[in-house]
Amino acid sequence: MLGQMQNHPLLISALITHAERHHADGEIVSRRVEGDIHRTDWATLAKRSRQVANALDADQLPAGTRVATVAWNGYRHMELYFGVSGSQRVLHTLNPRLHPQQLAWIINHAEDTVVCFDTTFTPLIAAVHSKCPTVKRWVALCDADKLPADSGIPNLVSYEGWLAAQSSNYRWPQFDENTASSLCYTSGTTGNPKGVLYSHRSTLLHAYAAALPDSLNLSARDAVLPVVPMFHVNAWGLPYAAAAVGCKLVFPGPAMDGKSIYELIEGEQVSLAAGVPTVWQMLLGHLQAGGLKFSKLNRTVIGGSACPPAMLTTFQDVYGVEVLHAWGMTEMSPLGTACTLKNKQLALDDAGRLKVRLKQGRVVYGVDMKIVDGEGKELPWDGRTYGDLLVRGPWIIDQYFRAEGDSPLVDGWFPTGDVATIDADGFMQITDRSKDVIKSGGEWISSIDVENVAMAHPAVAMAACIGMPHPKWDERPIVVVALKPGAELSRDDMLAFYEGKIAKWQIPDDVVFVQSIPLGATGKMMKVSLREQLKGYVLPGV
To answer: pTM of the prediction?
Structure first.
């Protein structure tokens, strides 16, 4: 017996239609590459999204065509989010921080037909366009009179000129909700990047989950600043969830320094900001240097890599901003867990609550997880036993783009590559990436734990822990440290700082000071590059 309910497919176009109808005057504020602040609203953004769809129709691009973006967070990028996917094409967000050769490889692998780019990336596009034979149209996201001159890029048009000839009247097509909606590639630290192809259904279910109170807790009363880039896993799904609830959106554009982010937070009365730890480091540095406070910001979402304890306590104790630790992956759309407390944990003292908040949290509804040993046997949820983390759910990858017949799944579960523990209350904590965990004398040392201690030292700007070969113990940890400007710190003082904070055998054998630690395209530490940088290093006494 089937239910007797209406059958409406879950489509991304429904989100922008809802936002226009019920939150028409909701603000969307963007700092543009032109340097000014642009203001629009959900109603205008919806109209211009329909113009995007008409422009793609005018170019006679069939359903499923990949339309790429190389752009910062801003209203034009947001219009493409809805205009491309809503018209049954596939939005392909490209990471501008990639090497040109890698970017060209991704464009060709995806067979992008249109590429839309912010003018700050004109040199990058000029370097790759001749290597991308599938691209028929290049669109500079600017006014007609700001079109880059003598770029050498063929068929280049301005975004505003491209849209100007199009009507805002457009009927969003109805189609199967499992149709592809957007495409993101993994950062590709080993081998070529892999494409993750999301569906309309997976994206909408993810948007519902992201907005839940025990998830990111979004509402129409929020002003949300996604510092996490729109080219990185669709800004963690925030553009879609924001349309679902009709909140104010504030886009930072290219200005990601602490001063610019702070001014935007204060000027637009942002209540929720989301980004990776490296961005918040710059923001906190600006606050501390100027003796500043927040007037409206009450919570921040931190993901991408583990939030150092010192950062969490600084946000909460000094600035009164609740930190929501979250975890996910490109292959997960990306949201997997969020660290919101259960009722019984509210009675814990400050130290008890902090211990919970430092974990990556519990799954949002729709995601299931487990940890297994090397033989695939499921391990207990006791908060101590660690194993390989596997996940499954309706917005988690089944197979990579153009890798048909080669599924990454293990008995229906996706292996994340993370090593984790799960406690009796279901709170998961990443102890390491499987490739970064340090195996010393048969015992595992979490590089994250070692890094977190170093990051708590007032002289340390950034720290990375890696394992080095040892003839007796297989591997021993060292900590690579970048100091804050003007700060001084000796090797012995750094090692002494570890005393009493972690087990003695987990204390690094050495400290290596560097000018900076290499960061990847999404702001994560590049330990592969760091190991290459330290090639030939020998542990003391070995």
So the answer is: 0.86
